Every structure is written in C-alpha cells, then in structure tokens.
From TrEMBL, chain A:
<dbReference type="Pfam" id="PF00528">
    <property type="entry name" value="BPD_transp_1"/>
</dbReference>
<keyword id="KW-0472">Membrane</keyword>
<keyword id="KW-0813">Transport</keyword>
<feature type="transmembrane region" description="Helical">
    <location>
        <begin position="111"/>
        <end position="133"/>
    </location>
</feature>
<keyword id="KW-1003">Cell membrane</keyword>
<feature type="transmembrane region" description="Helical">
    <location>
        <begin position="338"/>
        <end position="359"/>
    </location>
</feature>
<dbReference type="GO" id="GO:0005886">
    <property type="term" value="C:plasma membrane"/>
</dbReference>
<keyword id="KW-1133">Transmembrane helix</keyword>
<feature type="region of interest" description="Disordered">
    <location>
        <begin position="370"/>
        <end position="394"/>
    </location>
</feature>
From TrEMBL, chain B:
<feature type="transmembrane region" description="Helical">
    <location>
        <begin position="251"/>
        <end position="268"/>
    </location>
</feature>
<keyword id="KW-0472">Membrane</keyword>
<dbReference type="InterPro" id="IPR000515">
    <property type="entry name" value="MetI-like"/>
</dbReference>
<feature type="transmembrane region" description="Helical">
    <location>
        <begin position="12"/>
        <end position="30"/>
    </location>
</feature>
<keyword id="KW-1133">Transmembrane helix</keyword>
<protein>
    <submittedName>
        <fullName>Carbohydrate ABC transporter membrane protein 2 (CUT1 family)</fullName>
    </submittedName>
</protein>
<keyword id="KW-0813">Transport</keyword>
<keyword id="KW-1003">Cell membrane</keyword>
<dbReference type="GO" id="GO:0055085">
    <property type="term" value="P:transmembrane transport"/>
</dbReference>
Length: 394, 283
C-alpha cells in the first residue's frame, strides 16, 4: 500500500522512477484545467462523504454527550437534549446500574462470539482451501462454488433460513434425533455453554471462587460462555464467512512458489511436515489478513442478531453493536446509544492498530508489487492482490 | 493426495468432500422445498426435499394473488428501484473520482486518496446513529432520497477504480489530449471504454451490496411503503407483520431476496471472487 500511494503522487515526489522525465512543459506544470477537472470529478464524492459520513460522525459525537430522547432537535439543548458531558460514557463503565450491567453483558457475549467464530472460520477456511487447491481434485469449480455461495447472499435471508433449520421441530433437531439426541430449544435456551459443561460435572449455582464481581458481573457470569442461542449465531456466521476466507487462502496458496514444493519433495518430507513447516509459515500474511477481517467483522455483528431474537433470550445474544441501536431506536436514549457506538468504533480501531503494530516489520521490508487491484487495508495487501489474480484464474 | 492414491482413500476423500458441500448447499435446497409446502407440512418434515402435497399458497401470497397483508411485491419494486439507481450512481461517480485520483494532477490529491482509505476502514455499525441524525436534520427521513443519496458514492468503489486506472497506460489518453479533447471527453470516450472489466466488477458488487443492504435502510426509513425485500423480510421474520410461524411464506420471501444475486453470482462468478478479495467482508 505504502509504495502504491507514493508512486501515484507523481509531482509531489520529484524524480521518482527511472527514465527521462518527459516534456517539462506539459507534465511538470500539470496540464491546464487538470486542477479544476480534478476537483470537479471528485466533488460528488467529497460532498457525499462529507455530508453523510464526516459531519454526521461529529454530530453523533456531540449527541453522545447529551441526553437526547428523540424529540425535537438534538442540538437545541433544553429538556429533550440536555448536555451531560461524559455521563453517558461513565454510565457504561464506572457507575453501578442497569446500563452498565447490560453493556457489560453485551461485551461478554460478543467476546465469546469472537473467541469461537474467528478460530473456527479461519481453520475451516484454511482446511477447505487446502482441499480445493489439490492438483488432482476433480470438480474443483463445483466445490469452490458450493463453499462460497452462502457468502454472497443476503445475511437477512440466510438468517431466516437458519431460524427454520434450528426451530424446535426443525431440520437440525430432526438430524440430531437420528442419533438419539434430544435437541435443545435453540432460540430460547439462555444457558451458557460452559455452565452446561460445569453442570454436567455437578457444579450448580455460583461456586464461591467465582463470586467476585468485575464491572458489576460475577466471574461466574463472565465465564458462562456463549449461550445455546448464541451458538446458532456462531454457527451461522462461520457458515457464511468461511467461503470468502477460503478464497483468500486459496489465492495465497496458489501464489506459493512451486520450487518450494519441489524442494520439499526432494527432501522427502511427509505431507504433514510440509504443511506444518513450510505451507503454514509461508501463509502467515494470509492468516493475518483473515484474522484481522474476522475480528473486525465479528465485533460488528448486527443483522443476524436483529433477525434472530434481538438479544433474546435473557440478553444472551445482545452485542454492543446491536445494543447501540436498541438503546437509541427502541429505548429512545440516543446519548447512550451513540456513546456505545463510539466505544465499538474505538475497539475496532484498537484491534486494527494492534494488528498493524504486529505487522510493522513486515511492512517496512520492501515488497514485491503485485499487478492491479489491491486491498485498501493496511494489512496484507500483497495477499489480496494475489487473491484478485486467483479470481482471474478461476 | 497424489496421482497414485489408492481407490478406497479417494472414495473416502470425495465422500467427505461431498458431505462438506452438502453442508453448505443443503440449507438452500430445504429453503426452496419448504416454500412449496403448507405450514403444517413444513414443520412435520423439515428435512424433506419433495413437497407432498405441493402447496402454492406461500407463493400466491408473495405475488399478492388473492390479496395479501404482506406487500412483498412493493418491497421487490423498492429493492429494484433503489439497487438500480445506487448502482448507476456508483459506477459513474466512483469512476469519475477514481480517474481524478489516478490521473489528474491537482493539489490535495494525495490527501483525498488518504481520506478515501481512511473512510474504508470506518466500521459500518458505528455509522447508524450518525446517518440517522443527518437524514433527520436534512428533513429527508423516510424518503427514497434518504435511501439512495448517502450510498450513491462509496469509498471502496472509488478505490477499485483508482487502482484499475493506475494499470492502464497513459499514452492513449495523451494522444487524445494532444488532439485537443477536453478532460471529460477523454475520460468518457477514451478511458471508460478501456475500463470495461473493472466497470463490470463494480456494477456487480454495487448491485449486490445495495440489494443486500440492511442497516442503512433500517435507520433511514420507517413506513411500510419504503421497505425493501431485505428490511421487509427482517420485520416479517422478527414477527412484526405476522402471526404464527408461516415458514413457507418467510422462506419463499427469503428465496426471492436471494434469487437476483444468485443469478448474478452464477453468471459472473469471477467478479464476485475478485470483489471478495478487495472489498473486505461483512460480519
């Protein structure tokens, strides 16, 4: 990415590139009319992004400092939109109360969600990519299409299908009954996964060691794990995102130099050794890309939650992103809702920066430029350029 | 697996792989089959792929035959209207901006491009309340304008076009410019025709994105007349519009929502795969 930006700056970095600079008159000054045309061509973009993105974010930032209830103008002050300073933020973190309790629960829910989804989708995507990449596989196109198709359809439409599949008398429970398993009432079961496991070992209620409270919730509550209802959402999201990530791994796999393969073959390595010591280390950038995108996506989960119960049962599928919406548009507490959305924002920016920091050495090293379309993210642009090529080859 | 793998291993391998493929496609088969079942049959035999007896009442309701409380045809019209206008707008405006960022030299260009990159990394869910505030402030809440205008340019599309124009050699345009063609003329008649592959990718991605869009319409509209298939389906599914489970109706409506994108997908698969690798991923 870095190389790319500076290379296109042309005039700002004089003498860049090799070869004689052509006709100083025409190019050096920039053609007459270029400046005007440049601003004219970008004007719609600037206007739309400014009016519907930049200014609104500032507006929301102000609203997060008020107690606006949806009546009248949020900027007028008065009873409807009192300026409350950082109250909305402190209510989320430091004040004991319902707001903090709900918010902390949503954070906990989302944390478990991320902890399950990201490793699962990464592992499954990698596994499928390895298979589809096999040189001797027949029907490659069919399998790739089958795995990828769920990724392109509407998340709402897919969620509706899953509501049916996981209904009490639905397909999943029907399959489970073949094995003599009495499936749960998926969408109304609020028991945490780890609580269920603990219950199987005879731990009932809150054990003494887990009664300490952190942010208004006991450790026992924090360590509940995803509820049964949340497991359906986990399953759904893994199912719909795997295909996309598989393509990214596939692109990276196809980009591996063949000499490595041959060398490994000559050295007599087994398939497993090659995978562990050669393929996986060489795919590190792809793994970084996939986990970053996974982390960004999973902290924003919204559509599926909206359709599959809006936080029910017992708020165990509530996520901060959805809570921000619910707090604003249902509870008409726009100040708190906006504050939550900025916390989510900050969280995602923090995750991305952390990833970028992990990758800083890699970025500093000179990289091979790939042709054509890259990815507008700081991480792994090489991989995605390669991904674009794999798409072409497909 | 190599060329000399024994047959039983191959069989096992393909067996497993087909099982995996079924795991990804079977839900769609169930969806199609169930939309042709009666409410009772849908829950009695949720796995069955052959609707027996065949029941068309869900589809009749979807197409509004015999009157229906659920105006799915209105949603469909809205979906098409909004998706087509947004797609047309994006293809034109994104390539205009992308061309300027790639080719035209003006002060502030580097800054503009950096801004586009920054905008691409803003998490969408953080924009729900901001968009709502602005749309209210402008007095366009619950209008087609509010649904379309904010989405008519997107940073990711500008980025794709800019990257594409970077790969086209300058010499051809230079010739046109020396012949005295204006900047816009050069862009329109010389550059755009060369950009067909990128334009096609952008068209498909824009259509898919705006057709599947949910959160933006959720916060900028309210009335039933403005519902798209996606927002309408969401309210249908969360029980706002109906009583009882009505699985055939819901799955039929979900199928209707899936079909246009599915057709595009099977016709232009490689443009999707390319887009997936550039535009990032929805959660």
């Amino acid at each position: 990415m870095t190389t790319d930006v500076s290379a296109t700056r042309g005039r700002v970095t004089p003498g860049r590139g090799s070869g004689p600079r052509r006709g100083g008159s025409a190019r050096g000054r920039g053609r007459r009319g270029d400046a005007a045309a440049g601003w004219l061509f970008t004007a719609p973009m600037i206007a739309i992004l400014g009016v519907f993105l930049f200014i609104p974010v500032l507006m929301a930032l102000y609203v997060s400092l008020t107690s606006w209830n949806g009546n009248g103008s949020p900027f007028g002050g008065g009873e409807n939109a009192r300026f409350v300073g950082l109250d909305n933020y402190t209510a989320l973190f430091t004040e004991d109360g319902l707001t903090r309790e709900t918010f902390m629960q949503s954070l906990g829910n989302n944390f478990w969600f991320v902890l399950f989804v990201v490793p699962l989708q990464t592992a499954l995507a990698f596994f499928l990519a390895l298979i589809v990449n096999n040189r001797f596989l027949r029907g490659k196109g069919f399998f790739r299409t089958a795995f990828y198709f769920p990724s392109v359809t509407s998340s709402i439409a897919i969620s509706v299908v899953f509501i049916f599949l996981f209904a009490n008398s639905g397909a999943v429970n029907a399959v489970l009954s073949w094995f003599g398993i009495d499936g749960p009432a998926w969408f109304s079961d609020s028991r945490g996964l780890f609580h269920i496991v603990a219950g199987a070992f005879g731990v009932d209620g809150t054990p003494a060691f887990a009664q300490a409270e952190v942010f208004g919730r006991t450790l026992w509550e924090w360590f509940a794990g995803p509820s049964v209802a949340m497991c359906v959402v986990i399953f759904l999201v893994v199912w719909t995102t795997t295909g996309t990530f598989m393509l990214m791994f596939l692109a990276a796999l196809q980009d591996l130099p063949e000499e490595v393969d041959e060398a490994a073959l000559l050295d007599g390595t087994s398939g497993w050794q090659k995978l562990r010591h050669i393929t996986i280390p060489m795919l590190k950038p792809a793994f970084f890309l996939v986990t970053t995108l996974g982390l960004i996506g999973t902290w924003q989960v919204f559509d599926q939650i909206y359709v599959m119960g809006k936080g029910a049962p017992a708020n165990t599928t509530l996520t901060p992103a959805f809570l921000s919406y619910k707090q604003s548009f249902t509870s008409l507490d726009y100040g708190t809702g906006a504050a939550i959305s900025f916390v989510v924002f900050a969280l995602i920016v923090a995750i991305t920066s952390f990833q970028r920091w992990l990758l800083r050495d890699r970025d500093a090293a000179p990289r091979r430029r790939r042709r054509g379309l890259g990815l507008g993210r700081p991480v792994g642009s090489t991989t995605s350029g390669a991904a674009a090529e794999a798409g072409d080859r497909a | 697996m190599t060329a000399r793998t024994p047959t039983w291993k191959l069989a096992l391998f393909y067996g497993l792989l087909i099982l995996f493929a079924l795991f990804f496609i079977y839900p769609f088969f169930i969806q199609i089959a169930t939309s042709f079942k009666s409410d009772a049959a849908a829950t009695d035999n949720p796995l069955g792929l052959i609707p027996n007896p065949l029941d068309l009442s869900a589809w009749k309701r979807i197409f509004g035959i015999g009157g229906s409380a659920v105006p799915i045809m209105t949603w469909t019209q809205n979906s098409f209207l909004v998706a087509i206008v947004i797609t047309a707008g994006r293809v034109f405006l994104d390539s205009l901006a992308g061309y300027a960022l790639s080719r035209l030299k003006f002060r502030g260009r580097g800054f503009l491009f950096a801004t586009v990159l920054a905008v691409m990394s803003v998490p969408g869910v953080a924009l729900l309340i901001p968009k709502f505030l602005m749309v209210k402030y402008l007095g366009i809440y619950d209008t087609y304008t509010a649904m379309i205008l904010p989405l008519i340019v997107d940073a990711a599309g500008v980025f794709i076009m800019k990257q594409f124009f970077d790969t086209i050699p300058v010499s051809i345009e230079e010739a046109a410019r020396i012949d005295g063609a204006s900047v816009f003329r050069t862009f329109w008649s010389v550059v755009l025709p060369m950009a067909k592959p990128a334009l096609l990718t952008l068209t498909i991605l824009s259509f898919q994105g705006s057709w599947n869009e949910f959160t933006h319409f959720l916060v900028t509209t309210q009335s039933p007349e403005r519902k798209t298939l996606v927002t309408g389906l969401a309210s249908l599914a969360s029980g706002e519009l109906s009583s009882g489970t009505q699985y055939p109706l819901k799955l039929g409506a979900a199928l209707l929502t899936t079909i246009p994108v599915a057709i595009l997908f099977f016709a232009f698969q490689r443009h999707f795969t390319r887009g997936a690798n550039e535009g990032g991923v929805k959660g």
